[in-house]
Amino acid sequence: MWWIYALLSALFAALTAILAKVGIKGVNTDLATAIRTIVILFVAWGLVFWRGGIDTLPTLSRQNWLFLVLLGVSTGLSWIFYFKALQLGKVSQVAPVDKLSVAIAILLSVVFLGEALTWKAAIGAILVIGGTLVLIL
After folding, report:
1. How far apart are the C-alpha atoms of 7 and 2, rounded to whole Å?
2. By the 8 A CB rule, do 76 and 37 touch?
3. Is 74 a residue whose pLDDT tops 90?
4. Do residues 83 and 16 lie in contact, with contact meaning Cβ atoms separated by under 8 Å?
5. What is the 3-state secondary structure (H, E, C) of 3-58?
6. pTM of the full predicted structure?
7. Does residue 94 contact residue 82 with C-beta atoms inside 8 Å?
8. How far apart, in Å, are the Cα atoms of 81 and each of 16, 55, 75, 137?
9. Better-scored residue on pLDDT, 137 or 118
10. How confident is the model over 26-67, as pLDDT tens digits?
11. Does residue 52 come out as left (phi exceeding 0), alpha (psi in the -120 to 50 range) or beta?
12. Distance (Å) of CA 100 to CA 47, 57, 113, 125, 126
């Protein structure tokens, strides 16, 4: 079932690139990020209340809070840089570079999470990097 959610994530990420490219034309990218964040805020909290997740809020540990806050900062910075890149470059170049996050995530998972680097993951990361180079050069 996870792969269905992953495919939906990829679909909406692709759609995001197209919508962002059109939506940020002539707009300050920081303002665009703020507007996008407000929409996400309402959607996310709406889902929390609709699906009953608010009951688990008191069970979050300090570690949960710390890493969720760091996640928010990381996501926000990612969006800010992504929007600026889209404003300056072509979607067909920006999106593949952004997807280098796959290879970087594999590396970081090995370094920080102690995950095993399998041959399959290593080859996949190399192919992602190679594909990105083909698309941007």
Report:
1. 9
2. yes
3. yes
4. no
5. HHHHHHHHHHHHHHHHHHHHHCCCCCHHHHHHHHHHHHHHHHHHHHHHCCHHHHHH
6. 0.84
7. yes
8. 14, 34, 10, 20
9. 118
10. 999 999 999 999 999 999 999 999 999 999 999 999 999 999
11. left
12. 30, 33, 19, 8, 10
